[in-house]
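Q: what sequence does this backbone want?
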C-alpha cells in the first residue's frame, strides 16, 4: 500500500468543466447611482413630453385652460366685462369689438366645452377674490350641447394651474376619490403616464404627415374643412336626436354659483348661445332640442333677476366655418361679436 496523495480535480475546459463565475454583491453606492440615473432619464423624458404637449395643436384644449387662467392672473384690476365660455366662445368673441361698442375693458377667459360651466364659476369667483366683481357684467357664451355635459375628467382638471386640492376649495367643489387624485397628479406631472393618449395621437399624426396620408390639425385655420364639418354635423344630429335638453347637475351648481355671485355683488350675467353652422340649425332634431333649451334657460333667467338670457342662435354658411359646426372663421366672428355688442348695449 503506497502513500499517494489524492489528485486534485482539474479545472477548466480540459476537465470538461465550465469556468466558475464569481459574483460580487452590489454596493449601496452603485445601487444609489443606478436609481438616480433612472430617475434623471425618466424626468428628462417627462420634461420633454411636457414641452411637446405644450406646443402641440393636439392639446389646444389644455392650452386654452392654462391661457385663460394666465390672463386672469395677469390682470392689473377688475374688468368691466368678463367673457366666459367654451372654445366656441373663444373662437367667436372678439374682445376689441366689444370694448369699442360697450366702452369698457373686456377680459375673455373662455376655455373648452368639456369643462362645462365649472371653470366659468371658478374663474369668476377667483376674479372677484383677486380684483373684485366685474364693473359692468359677465357674458357667458356656450354652444348648445355644453349644458348637458357631465363633470370634467381629471385629465382636464389637471391643467387648471392652481395648487393641488383646488378642486375641493373652489365653489362648486368637485369630489375626487384617492385614485382620481392620483390620476390628476400623473396627468399634470407625469405625462408619459397621465397623457399617454395625447402623446400617442401626436406621434401617430406626425407619422401620417410624413406618409402624406394625414394632416396636422390647425387651431387657427381660416379655411373650411368641409369633410370635418360634415362629420361633426352627423355627430351633433345623432346627439340631438337621441336626447332631450337638461342642465347637468354640476353645471346647474356652477350656474347657481354664478347667479349667486351676481346677486351678491350686484352685476348682471348674460347668457348667450354660441354661433353654429346653418346646416345644423336647419335640422329638425336640433330644432326640437334647441327649443327645449330656450325654454329651460328662459325660465332660469326669469327666476334669477341678475341673469338675462339673450336667446336665439346666430348661424353662418359652411364657408364661414373652420373644422366643426360651432367654430367660425374671422369674418363671421366679427359679425357675431358686433351682434352681441348691440344686444348688450
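A:
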Amino acid at each position: 500500500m503506497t502513500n499517494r496523495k489524492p489528485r486534485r480535480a482539474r479545472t477548466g475546459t480540459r476537465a470538461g468543466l465550465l469556468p466558475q463565475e464569481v459574483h460580487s454583491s452590489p454596493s449601496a453606492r452603485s445601487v444609489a447611482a443606478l436609481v438616480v440615473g433612472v430617475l434623471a432619464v425618466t424626468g428628462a423624458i417627462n420634461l420633454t413630453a411636457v414641452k411637446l404637449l405644450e406646443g402641440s395643436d393636439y392639446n389646444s384644449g389644455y392650452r386654452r385652460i392654462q391661457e385663460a387662467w394666465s390672463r386672469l392672473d395677469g390682470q392689473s384690476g377688475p374688468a368691466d366685462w368678463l367673457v366666459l365660455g367654451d372654445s366656441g366662445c373663444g373662437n367667436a368673441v372678439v374682445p376689441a369689438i366689444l370694448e369699442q361698442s360697450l366702452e369698457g375693458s373686456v377680459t375673455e377667459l373662455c376655455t373648452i366645452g368639456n369643462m362645462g360651466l365649472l371653470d366659468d364659476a371658478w374663474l369668476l369667483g377667483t376674479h372677484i377674490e383677486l380684483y373684485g366683481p366685474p364693473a359692468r357684467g359677465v357674458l357667458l357664451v356656450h354652444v348648445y350641447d355644453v349644458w348637458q355635459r357631465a363633470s370634467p375628467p381629471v385629465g382636464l382638471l389637471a391643467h387648471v394651474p392652481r395648487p393641488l386640492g383646488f378642486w375641493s376649495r373652489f365653489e362648486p367643489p368637485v369630489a375626487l376619490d384617492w385614485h382620481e387624485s392620483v390620476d390628476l397628479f400623473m396627468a399634470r406631472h407625469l405625462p408619459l403616464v397621465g397623457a399617454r393618449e395625447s402623446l400617442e395621437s401626436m406621434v401617430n399624426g406626425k407619422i401620417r404627415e410624413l406618409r402624406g396620408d394625414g394632416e396636422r390639425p390647425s387651431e387657427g385655420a381660416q379655411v373650411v374643412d368641409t369633410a370635418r364639418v360634415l362629420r361633426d354635423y352627423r355627430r351633433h344630429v345623432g346627439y340631438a336626436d337621441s336626447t332631450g335638453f337638461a342642465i347637468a347637475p354640476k353645471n346647474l351648481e356652477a350656474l347657481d354659483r354664478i347667479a349667486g355671485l351676481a346677486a351678491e355683488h350686484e352685476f348682471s350675467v348674460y347668457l348667450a348661445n354660441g354661433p353654429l353652422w346653418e346646416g345644423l340649425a336647419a335640422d329638425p332634431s336640433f330644432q326640437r332640442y334647441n327649443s327645449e333649451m330656450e325654454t329651460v334657460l328662459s325660465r332660469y333667467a326669469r327666476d334669477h333677476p341678475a341673469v338675462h338670457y339673450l336667446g336665439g342662435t346666430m348661424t353662418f354658411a359652411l364657408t364661414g366655418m373652420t373644422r366643426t359646426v360651432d367654430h367660425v372663421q374671422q369674418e363671421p366672428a366679427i359679425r357675431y361679436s358686433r351682434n352681441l355688442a348691440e344686444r348688450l348695449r
